[in-house]
Amino acid sequence: MPASPDSTPRPSLSVFDATTIMVGLVVGIGIFRTPSLVAANVGSELAFVAVWVAGGVITLIGALCYAELSAAHPNAGGEYHFLSRAYGKPVAMLFGWARGSVIQTGAIAGVAFVLGDYLAQLLPLGPYGPALYAAIAIIVFTGVNVIGTLESKTLQIAMTATEILAILAIIAFGLLGSAEAPPPAPALAPETASLGMAMIFVLLTYGGWNETAYLTGELKDPARNIAKVLVLGTLVLVTLYVLANLALLSILGLEGLRGSDAVAADMMGVVAGPAGSIVVSLAIVVAAVSTLNATIFTGARVYYAMARDMTLLPRVGKWDERGRTPANGLIAQAVVALALVAVGAATRDGFKAMVDYTAPVFWGFLLLVGLAVFVLRWREPGRALPFRTPLYPLTPILFCLTCLYMLHASIAYTGVAGLFGLGVLAAGVPLLLFRRREPRTETEGGPLPAAVGLSD
């Protein structure tokens, strides 16, 4: 039966489903790449562990802010909906453009490049092998998500479970390994150590938790359950990351971490030999697959919300009732991501190019979402808040200050790629000319789908 143009997302995800997707979004390639970069910017083993704990605390604070917004304003548009209610449709539409052309598609291309790099080691396809693998992966997992939410959800649960088991094995080998204690690392010169830079890499590794906001349109009883998902997911992430880094530190030591480009493989090579390194390489492939699938799953949800506020390309936001997915949005997202893969293939490091491209735009809009906690409380004093951010206003202030610092750092350190991302953001301004002018009766951000069973 053809999908109705008015088909809308249905609440089909449990707390377990959504928490699994959140963990799968975050636990991925970062934990296998950034510990050496963090170690190079801290002066002691204690500081190394402390920044990972601090990053977890900041992530939890951000999750609590998002929990308030998501519980009070549940919608499949996630951050797009929050920005629309707080600042109006023009800001939300610009965010939708940024997400579709920079933030989400850049993240998809970046993760696909990591997957391609490791697959190319196992089965080389020539100088452009990583890019070819990246493109094939985007096409395959977009197809899985177009088929339906149930199919992509099942795949995500299986991939995340495999991924976590692999990381737990690394933790066990590291903490229980029989290797001799590594020598203490020499102190870094004051001009070399930089806790600020270390936090940039730590928060990059924790990144992705905010994608959970896009699941509220499909989460059962989101007003009550979204806070559970965000808090449970964050606690799982902090536990995994801190233990994993303790394991790496216990085997390689801080100096060993500083000199390693593949920390997990090197650690497993010490305690388990070459076979251990192969296992870790396979685990990284699984991690990249899990992250890629989850990022594609949540990414296209913003097209559904954005298309309801625009007269241009309305079919991009069409919800496919048969598969319970924004099928056209998924296809549009894949086309942009494939174009970015083509651009990244022309650079020396496709993954780094995508990180640099997305960072300034991402942190700028995350700052606006954090400020929306204050704006919406002020603009809608009578609105019931099923979940309130603890220690308000201190916690959202700390979150906003963190976003502001990360915005500054990302502009200062990403160079031309970051400026190019900002240029692409500016290129979306003409889209505001296609804003729908007719009055909307439900919400400023567009009517909430009746099938969700919530009023806003």
UniProtKB/TrEMBL annotation:
Bilayer topology term: Multi-pass membrane protein
Transmembrane segments: 12-34, 46-69, 90-116, 128-150, 157-176, 188-209, 229-254, 274-304, 325-345, 357-378, 390-407, 413-434
Subcellular location: Membrane
Predominant cellular place of this UniProt entry's protein: membrane
Originating species: Methylopila henanensis
InterPro entries in UniProt: AA/rel_permease1, AminoAcid_Transporter
Keywords: Membrane, Transmembrane, Transmembrane helix
Protein name: APC family permease
